[in-house]
Structures are given as C-alpha cells and as structure tokens.
Amino acid sequence: MTTAPRGEPADRPTGARRIPSRQLLWLAPGFCIWFSALVFVYVLHSMGCAFGWSAATIRLSLSLALIVHIALIGMLWRLQARRGPNPAFGRAGTFLHWIIVGTLVSALVKIVFTLGPILFLTACT
After folding, report:
1. Helices (H), the chain
2. 65 and 44 Cβ atoms separated by less than 8 Å
3. Residues contacting 13, CB < 8 A, separation 6+
4. Contacts of 88 (CB under 8 A, 6+ apart)
5. Which of 25, 34, 30 is nearest to 102 (CA)?
6. What is the pLDDT of residues 39-50, one digit of tens each?
7. Longest dimension (CA), the chain
8. What is the pTM of this model?
9. Cα 97 from Cα 19, distance rounded (Å)
10. Predicted confidence (pLDDT) per residue in 71-117, tens digit
C-alpha cells in the first residue's frame, strides 16, 4: 500500500493535480441552453396563438429560436473540442473533458428530437 499525503487518494497518478470543482460547472451549460430553448419555444407558441399570429409567423419564430439555441450549443461544443483535455489533470481530466463534450452533444440531440417536431405540427389547437 502506498502512502499518500493526508486527504489525498493513494491511487492518484504521479504529477496529476486535483480537478477544481469549477470545472464541473461545464456540465451544466448544454442542458441550461436546452431548458432555455424549451421555455422560448413554448412562450413563443403560446404568444403566437394568443395574439393570432399566422402559422407561418409562428413557425418562423420557433425556427429562429431553435436555430439560435442550436448555434449556442454548437459554439460551446466547438470551444470544448478545440480546448481539449488539460494534461495536468491526467486521466481524470481526459474523462471529464469527454463527459463535458458528451453532455453538449446530448443536449443538442435533445433539442433536435424534442423540440424540432413542433415545427411540423399544426400551429394552434
């Protein structure tokens, strides 16, 4: 059994630093943007129905809201992919990097599959 400094796990690779907790905040933006898209789509749809907008106007506003949110996630994805994992954090940093990229991809897919079909439905019921 190897001895490690007090409070440090014994299996940490030599030279790897502890990942700061602020790095975990990168797990949230994708799903925060998805939530924002969900709110915007439903607000725009209800406003359009309440104020009697034409079906084309409602679909255009919904499309623009979805495109803006998809572009935001795409920019974050590109930023994370370009930045890459921080080698100072070792394998844990690489794992965290791929988890962050995975959450962005999953939020993007969630927007497309949950909110995209709204564009093909009838405007107001």
Report:
1. 29-50, 55-83, 90-115
2. yes
3. 90, 91
4. 16, 17
5. 30
6. 999 999 999 999
7. 72
8. 0.78
9. 11
10. 999 999 999 989 888 777 888 888 889 999 999 999 999 999 999 99
